[in-house]
Design brief:
Order of helices and strands: EEEEEHHEHHH
Shape: elongated
Number of helices: 5
Distance between the termini: 78 Å
Number of strands: 6
Structural class: alpha+beta
Radius of gyration: 23 Å
Helix content: 40-55%
Largest sheet: 3 strands, antiparallel
Strand order of the largest sheet: 1-2-3
Length: about 160
Amino acid sequence: MHCPFCRHADSRVIDSRTADDGSLIRRRRQCPNCGKRFSTVEAFSLSVVKRSGVVEPFSRDKIISGVRKACQGRPVSDDDLALLAQKVEEAIRDSGQAEIDALDIGLAILTPLRDLDEIAYLRFASVYQAFDSLEDFDRAIADLRHEDAGKEPAASGSTD
């Protein structure tokens, strides 16, 4: 890292802190030549590889707009969508990959969307899991019912 004051080719990191939900690192540096201090910001860039092969930067806004269509007419707020997009981004960043397929992002959306709204989940899943028949919907609904049955508290017996 070149010093912005004297253009010396080296600097020493004094302090590092994360910012913006951990996607940025702010570093305080000091030049060993002139002694002046300056800050740098490093961003972990995440790229999406589209089906066409085009690579573009990851965008939470695209997740929100895609999921918003599936949630149309459902009791889901903008805050719910923003939280879902944050969860998806965190899961993708935790994978450690700098480039991720668009299909993998769609699949990463499914679990938090299922927890948010099952109808929106079915709408979204029908696209990303390429449902082509009623049997695909039946299977997905049966899976949801099976998972919901596992979540229900055990019925307590009555005592006489």
